[in-house]
């Protein structure tokens, strides 16, 4: 009887030791996986994100940018279209970019106010005058918004954004020169150009409503 009890106790101790050993082994595996994941994170992006054959992956292989590189956003036709927009043409002066954007928005923004405004049913040129005045008001509000954004963004000692102190890169990783628009003086010139272009476009829109023979 004593021998059986000793054998049972021995088996229990052995099983307990095996359980402890298996628990330690499991914890060691978890720690090893966690350490490997940390090393992968420290070295760069995970292996799945570095796959060159992936259709959708982080831009420039950096998941911390917060932008994905897809067949649509990385297509040459899309990249060329975005590069030719006035806001991204770094070779053009900021004031000219503001004038171009203001002319485009100011000319087309009066149409909804003229045709859908509360005075659209009035006789004479009342709808046109009211719509163009409303369009001019929208241009002034947008100019105020651009001014507030510039004051809030360019507060550094050199009048530049903190992000722009780093050299910007293209989609292919090529370093380019800093955009003059991303500075206090450049943003002020852009805002001034937008105001002049927007109000000029609103005035031109009103002239078109009075002179075009097929307008009704």
UniProtKB/TrEMBL annotation:
Query: Does the keyword Membrane feature in the UniProt annotation?
Result: yes
Show the stretches that span the lipid bilayer. Answer: 129-152, 190-215
Main localization, broad class: membrane
Compartments reported by the entry: Membrane
Task: Note the Gene3D superfamilies from the entry.
Answer: Photosystem I PsaL, reaction centre subunit XI
The entry assigns this protein to a family as follows: Belongs to the PsaL family.
Q: Fetch the PANTHER family from UniProt.
A: PHOTOSYSTEM I REACTION CENTER SUBUNIT XI, CHLOROPLASTIC
The entry's protein name is PSI subunit V
Which species is this record about?
A: Chloropicon primus
